[in-house]
Amino acid sequence: MPFTENDGISLYYETDGPTDHDTVAFVGDVAFGAWQWGWQHAAVAGPFESLVWDFRGTGRSSAPDGPYSVAELAGDLEAVLVDHGVRKAHLVGAGLGGMVALQYAKRFSRAKTLTLIGTAASGDRIAPDVRERLLAEKTPDALSDSLRPVVSEDVFADGLDEVVEWRLADDADRPAQRAQFAAMEGFDVSDSLYEITTPTLVIHGTDDRVVPVDAGKSLADGLPRGELRTFEGAPHLVHVERSKAVNDELVDFLAANAEKTFD
Q1: pTM assigned to the model
Q2: Quick check: is 158 in a domain?
């Protein structure tokens, strides 16, 4: 159970898979714990080494007072990768995590590829009314209701009891949620996307109510090596609801840009 520190902040991470293969580092969405990557982990750990870490304010990492910034979170990611001895990493980020991956690729040299899920180049693309619905006290009813903007109505109606249990254990408390949302709101690389030449796969659900699909299209268009995959009718948590199709796209993209995978 490795921990590392950045500017006095304790950061927790876990790895799985062969250490002599490419590392895929997952960078989570605002307020959500590591549970959000459970649908990708099995697909990645094996052909690659998987690394999942808790943002400051989330899971087992420290929860300093906010607000946070995307630059600080990118610095946290660098501390984790340095601690694990990673020379290059494929970064897979969702929402806020995609913003962190973009900032990381601008500032540091370890990003081999980026996969950005439900991500925008600027925090002003986040729907403000939805933001308030995503903020939730850590009670079962509140956490369940706050999933409405990020999943489809059918999935919500079927019940999300297991996800709520994971959220109770690992998600950020409300002050840290607000601190992470502040990081999103203060982020903007829309005028400097041309500087990010890392190969990038942009994945977006067409029914994303948090980050409009047009923001994903603009992101892919603005990146010199960006390519877009949209999923018709999929919500913000497209990598959860359409995990098989998303995983197929992800693994193909990673394999095409990997130094070494299993045969």
Answers
A1: 0.96
A2: no
Alpha-carbon gap, residue 109 to 145, rounded angstroms:
40
Tell me the backbone φ, ψ of residue 26, rounded to 5 degrees. -95, 135
What backbone phi and psi angles, to 5 degrees, belong to 53?
-135, 160
| pLDDT, tens digit, 9 for 90 and up, residues 124-174 | 999 888 888 999 999 999 999 999 999 999 999 888 999 999 999 999 999
**Residue 7: is it exposed, middle or buried by C-beta count within 10 angstroms (0-12/13-18/19+)?**
exposed
Phi-psi group of 233: left, alpha or beta (phi > 0 → left; psi -120 to 50 → alpha; rest → beta): left
Question: Does residue 81 fall inside a structural domain?
Answer: yes
Residue 205 identity: G
Token pair 């439900």 in the structure block, residue: 118
Is 112 a member of any domain? yes
The answer to whether 236 and 209 have CB atoms below 8 angstroms apart is yes
More confident residue, 155 or 91: 91
CA-to-CA separations, 26 to 80, 90, 139, in angstroms, rounded = 12, 8, 26
Q: Which helix (H) or strand (E) holds 72?
A: helix 70-84
Q: Is the pLDDT of residue 1 over 70?
A: no
Q: What is the DSSP letter of 173?
A: P
Q: Tell me: the pLDDT tens digits for 106-138?
A: 999 999 999 999 999 999 999 888 888 999 999
Residue 41 within any structural domain of the chain: yes
Q: Give the pLDDT score at 263.
A: 47
Instruction: Check: CB of residue 187 under 8 Å from CB of residue 73.
Output: no
Number of domains in the chain: 1
For residue 47, the enclosing domain spans 3-128+172-256
The CATH number for 75's domain is 3.40.50.1820
